Amino acid sequence: MNHLPAFRHIVSLSTMALICHLSSAASDELVSTVADARGGLWHVAEEMFSNPVVNQWRMTGSLTSIHADYLMRNDNRPIDPRLGKADHIWSGGADTYIKYKSSTLWGAARYANGKCKDMKWNETADASLLYPYLTADSIGGDMQHETYEFGGGYADHAGRWAWGVSLSYKAHLEYRTVDPRPRNVTGTLDVAAGGAYRAWRDYYLALGLNWSKYKQSNDIEFKSEMGVEKIFHLTGLGTHYTRFDGNSLDVNYQGMTFGTDLSIYPSSGRGLFCGVHLSRFTFDNILTDLNKLPMASAWHNSLLGSVGWLQPDKLNSWGVAVNVAAQRRHGTENIFGDPAASIYPQIGALTMYGCNYFSISAKGEYVRHFGEVTRIKASATTGYDRSVEAYVKPSRRTLVSGFSTGAGISTEILLPHAWLLSGGLHAGAVFPTDCAMTWSQPDNDKEMAGLVRIEQNLYRLMSATHGSAGIDLALSMPLARKFRLQLEARWTRDIYTRPTHSDRITAQAALQF
Predict the structure, then answer these.
(1) Is the peptide bond before 182 cis (omega within 30 degrees of 0)?
(2) Does residue 25 carry a pLDDT above 90?
(3) How far apart are CA 244 and CA 251, in angstroms?
(4) pLDDT band at 224 (very low <50, low <70, confident <90, very high)
(5) In terms of Cα–Cα distance, which of 473, 478, 354 is closest to 415?
(6) How far, in Å, CA of 487 to CA of 511, rounded?
(7) Which among 209, 233, 207 is positioned nearest to 220, based on CA atoms?
C-alpha cells in the first residue's frame, strides 16, 4: 500500500489546524483545555458525542495534537489465540478540535504499523466484527499489519437550530510472509449527520443518522513445495462448514450498517442528558474463487441507551450516568446442491448461530477543583452483563453473566512555569454469577480439537472471577507561548485465573497547540 496519501492527510490536517489555531489560543487557555481533554466532566456523557451535532458541545476550548504512539500487549499465557498472544504497534497522527465563532471543526489522521504475534485459528481481519464466519487454519503465526485512518466533522448552531456532519475512512492491511500467507485488505467508510432543535433553555433535542460500508478481501496463498495446510471456514463455537473446507482460499466480506439516535443534551454541559441509539449491521461471507458463492450471512441489531446528569462547578463538580446495551446477532448458513458449470445452486438456508447480549451499568465522577486547572477526580462504576451464545447442531451453548465494579482516582496539578502533571490509579473486578456451558462434540470431528480447546479455555477464564489494575502518568510542559509538549505513559494488567494475566503498555509524545 502507498504510504504517501496517509502522510499527506496528516500534514494537510496539521497545517490547517495550525493556521486556524495560532490566532486564538493563549497559554493559560491551552493549559486549561489540555486538562479538560484528559479529565473533564464531559467523559461521563461520552456516549452522547457520536452524534456530530452534539459533539460541538463536548469541550469549550480548542486543542490540536500531533503525536507519536506505541502500544504493547502481552499475554503470559494464551487467552484467545485467535486474537494473538502479543501486539507491538507504532503509530503517528494528528487530532484537532477547533472552536471558531459559533462553529466547531474536528478531524483526525493516523498511520499505524505493527505485528500481532502467535495468532492461531484465525486468518481474518476484524475477527470480532465478523464472528462467527472466519477463515482459519491450525498453524497460524505472526501477522504484520498497517492501518490508515482519516476523517473529520463540522457542527454549528444559529437561533434555535443546530446541525452537524462527519465523515471518516479507515483502511487496514494484514499479511504474513510465511505459509500460510493471508493478505487481508479492509475498508470502512462512515458517514453521520445530525440536526437539533433547542426545545427549552439550553436543552437541544437532537436526531442523528449514520451509515457505514465495510469491505474485506481475505486471500490466502501457499508457496511451500511440501504441501499446504487445510483451511477451514468457521461457523461459530468451534464448528465449521465442512463441505467447502480446503476448497476456497479467497473470501470476501461485504457489510453495511444503518443507525439512528435520539438524544437530549444541554449545550452548557450542565443538567440532564439522555439518548438512545439503534443500529443494524449486516454482512455476507462470500467464497470468491467458488464463483462468488454466498456461504453465509449475519445480522447484528444493537440498542444503546444512556441517561445522566452533569453538574460542573468552580469548586465541586460531579456527574452520574446509567448506560444500557442490548445486542442480538444471528448467523445463517446457505445450503447448496451439486455444481453445474461451476455454479452451486442454493437450495435452502438454516439459521445456526445466535448470540444475545445485555448489560446495564452506572458510573459517577466527583471532581474537587483547586483553581482553574488543578483538580482531584474520583470515579466509580458498577454493572451487570449477560451473554448467551448458541449453535444449533452440534448443540452448543455458553452462558456467562456477572457483576462488575471499578474505581479510580486521578489528578491534574499545575506546577510552576505552567508545567501540568497528571496521573491516576484504577482497578476493577468481575464477579460471575450464572454461568453454564453445554457442549456436544461429534466423534468424527477431531480436526477441530485445537479450536474447541480455545473456546472452552476462554469460557473457563470468563466464568471465573477476574480483574484489572493500572496506572497512568502524563507531563505537559510549555515549549513556547502557544505550544506544549506532552509525554504520557499508561500500564494496565488484566488478571485471570492463576497464573494467567495480560499486560498492556501505551506511550505517547505529543505536540499540543
Answers:
(1) no
(2) no
(3) 12
(4) confident
(5) 478
(6) 9
(7) 233
Q: Name the amino acid, one letter, at 388.
A: V
CA distance 369 to 357: 39
Locus of grid cell 452462558: 399
**Residue 383 to residues 317, 357, 359, 402, 408, Cα–Cα distance (Å):** 23, 14, 7, 8, 15
Which residues in 127-140 are b (16+ Cβ under 10 Å) and which e?
bebbbbbbbbbeeb
**Is 485:477 a contact under the CB 8 Å cutoff?**
yes
Helix, coil or strand: residue 229? coil
* 268 Cβ contact partners less than 8 Å away, ≥ 6 residues apart: 57, 202
* Cell numbers standing for residue 265: 443534551
- Contact call for residues 191 and 219 (beta carbons, < 8 A): no
| CA–CA dist 214, 233 (Å, integer) | 20
pLDDT in tens, 460-502: 999 999 999 999 999 999 988 789 999 999 999 999 998 899 9
Residues 326, 309, 366, CA angle at the centre, nearest 5°? 105
The total of other beta-carbon atoms located within 10 Å of residue 511's CB is 16
Which contiguous run of DSSP H or E holds residue 1? Answer: none
Mean pLDDT score, 302-323: 97
Instruction: Find all residues with CB under 8 Å of 180, minimum gap 6, and list them.
Output: 123, 137, 139, 141, 220, 221, 222, 228, 229, 231
0.85 exceeded by the pTM?
yes
The span from the CA of 145 to the CA of 239, in Å, is: 27
Query: Rounded CA gap, 237 and 217, in Å?
Result: 23
Name the nearest CA neighbour of 147 among 182, 185, 176: 185
Distance separating alpha carbons of residues 173 and 486, to the nearest angstrom: 30
Cis previous bond, 499, omega within 30 = yes
Grid cell digits, residue 7: 502522510
| Distance in angstroms (rounded) separating the CA atoms of residues 123 and 251 | 11
* C-alpha grid cell, residue 10: 496528516
Neighbours of 248 (CB within 10 A): 19
